[in-house]
Specification:
4-stranded antiparallel beta sheet, 6-stranded antiparallel beta sheet, 354 residues
Length: 354
């Protein structure tokens, strides 16, 4: 640093000068002081240069020039700002500036397809528009198999897809079939209609004479088992197993003019077309008797003398309360249809206990 008035040149801007020794009123002006002041003024002018306010009108000094907005050509170089992308934040390295009303473009790209794959943030630096849409990768569904499996494909199935059902030989065992049993008991010649998808029936008789007979009439054009059992004497019982899915226990009874029940039909499901399961004939085997559908809840009138164990077992098998009497009859008796014949009669078109 240099003391003003010492006769030494200024050190500014490397170091600031000082004026430690103040001049008093008795001090006479010396050439050193005048030359020092002039030296420093020239030095400041050389550093600021000509037109230090930068040219705009109204900037009367350097401070005003610094406070003005830099908009004139040559003051600053401008350039378009960089696009907005998913990238690590950075101060940047450009030497240009952006205008006050500048806009950033956003780099966009088509989104990827939706697949069954692990979720991921992704690695792309581009963004998606607010109204973007994802495509969904789809593929044909597989054939119906024998075991449940999530699968390993990344593609999805459409809502209206269809599975091809392929049943290979020996692929379904008897334990995998959902089946039920039906029974019919009669004391006279009776027409019997079986459930659809029935297996061949078994026939037992407590009498001596009986026979399978055909039904008279035109071809019904279906595969439902239907036939006539001619009964000579005693009681005849027909049982069959069939494939089922409805769980709709049904009871039919055919009776004579006195209300005596001549035949009873009991099955876990109704006949395919809702026709009577049994139609009995008179002793001559020629005149049809009346048949009615018995509400299964009415079997509750016939449950006397059944053990509490059988009642609990039957109720446990019933899916709704109205099915309980039917299930109890099957649990309590080897031949529930025969028990209905023994315990009930028809009065006024309704089942009543004897």
């Amino acid at each position: 640093m240099s003391e003003i008035g010492s006769g030494n040149p200024t050190d500014w801007p490397t170091a600031q000068d000082t004026n430690t020794t103040k001049e008093s009123g008795a001090t006479q002006a010396t050439s050193n002081f005048a030359n020092d002041v002039a030296d420093r003024i020239i030095k400041i002018m050389n550093i600021l240069g000509n037109d230090p306010h930068g040219g705009p009108s109204g900037a009367s000094d350097v401070a005003a020039r610094i406070g003005q907005e830099h908009t004139l050509p040559g003051a600053h170089t401008t350039a378009a700002p960089a696009n907005v992308i998913k990238q690590t934040a950075s101060a940047g390295s450009g030497t240009t500036v952006s205008r006050a009303n500048h806009l950033h473009d956003v780099t966009v790209a088509t989104p990827t397809n939706v697949t069954k794959a692990a979720n991921a943030e992704g690695s792309a630096t581009s963004l998606s528009r607010s109204d973007h849409k994802h495509d969904v990768t789809t593929a044909n569904v597989g054939n119906t198999g024998t075991a449940n499996a999530e699968g390993s494909a990344a593609s999805l199935a459409r809502s209206d897809h269809v599975h091809n059902t392929v049943v290979a030989s020996s692929s379904i065992g008897t334990g995998e079939l959902k089946t039920a049993t039906a029974v019919t008991t009669m004391t006279v010649t009776t027409d019997i209609t079986m459930n659809d998808y029935s297996f061949f029936p078994s026939v037992t008789s407590a009498g001596n004479a009986w026979a399978f007979q055909r039904l008279l009439g035109s071809d019904p054009a279906n595969t439902v088992g239907a036939f006539r059992m001619a009964v000579g004497s005693g009681t005849l019982t027909v049982r069959w197993r069939y494939m089922t899915a409805s769980d709709n226990p049904t009871v039919w009874a055919s009776f004579g003019p006195t209300g005596k029940i001549l035949a009873v039909w009991m099955s876990d499901d109704p006949t395919p077309e809702g026709s009577p399961g049994v139609v009995a004939y008179d002793a001559t085997g020629k005149i049809k008797q009346k048949s009615i559908l018995i509400p299964r809840i009415d079997l509750g009138k016939l449950l006397t003398g059944i053990s509490a164990v059988k009642i609990r077992a039957g109720k446990k098998l019933a899916t709704t309360p109205d099915k309980e009497p039917y299930r109890i009859m099957w649990e309590a008796f080897k031949n529930p249809a025969d028990e209905v014949m023994k315990r009930a009669k028809i009065v006024g078109g309704k089942l009543v206990a004897k």
